[in-house]
Amino acid sequence: MVINTNTSASSSARLLAESSSMLSKSLARLSSGSKIVSPEDDAAGLAVSSRFDAQINRINATRSNLSNANSFVQTQDGYLKKVAKSLDRMSELAVLSQDVTKSDADRALYDEEFQTLGAFIDDVATKDFNGISLFSSSAQNVTIDSDGNTFSMSGVDLGSSTYTTATGSSVSTASDAATALTNVKNAITELAANRSTLGANMARINTTNDQLGVLKENLQAASSRIKDVDVAEESTQFARYNILVQAGTAMLAQANVTPQSALRLLG
Questions:
Q1: From CA 267, how far away is CA 50, in angstroms rounded?
Q2: pLDDT digits (tens, 9 = 90+) for 69-98
């Protein structure tokens, strides 16, 4: 029996330190909800989950861009609905002005409303959305994924010659009214095509937004499997390490007491 070197106490102390360390890690995992509380816990898993988290954040930004683009298109269509009603009324006025029972004085009254509606359409063509022209021939590049890829959203130009010719017409005479009717009908046809274009843009934006939502859910699930703690399993480990710490403490105390038996030999 030796007293200078207490091998049992050293071994017990080492094992107690290991159990205490594992208990601390288990406690940290349960309190944080993450099983990777330090890079050493899962270096590769940390790298993968970090990339997933960054991609998820970029997807959130992309969906925000898509929502803004959708608002842009909805605003365009809101104006075009009013333009459609104005053109419909202008075509009606052009037909009324061709009535043989109407005098030019009557047509002048029709023309006053006709010109007012035309001025409204010309004004709509100058509207913008957060400083961006709503009705320009230029296409807008809309972000569609986390890598910054885009699709070209076709523009709608209310300043095209088809519209300006219609709004610049007159119904002050029967012959002018006949010409105006042809011009307005052409504008109505172009407006129908433009609204169809907006519908296609909306469909693309909404479809892309839905697809990104599904991708985000899948990435979150993948990231969760890597870094989120299984509370049931970790609680079991916590209880195990807690018992080991208590047992190790008791055994270390016992190991420190054992050398005292040597004193009895000296007595």
A1: 67
A2: 999 999 999 999 999 999 999 999 999 999
Question: CA 77 to CA 92: how far, in whole Å?
Answer: 22
* pTM value > 0.90: no
43-96 vs 174-227: helix crossing angle, rounded to 10: 170
What are the Cα distances from residue 145, in Å, to 45, 66, 151, 208?
24, 10, 10, 8
Residue type, 48: V
* Angle of CA points 229, 234, 239, to nearest 5°: 160
- Bridge partners of 236? none
Token pair listed for 46 = 């940390």
Please tell me the number of Cα atoms within 13 Å of 138 on its side-chain side.
Answer: 7
The model's confidence at residue 188, banded by pLDDT at 50, 70 and 90, is very high
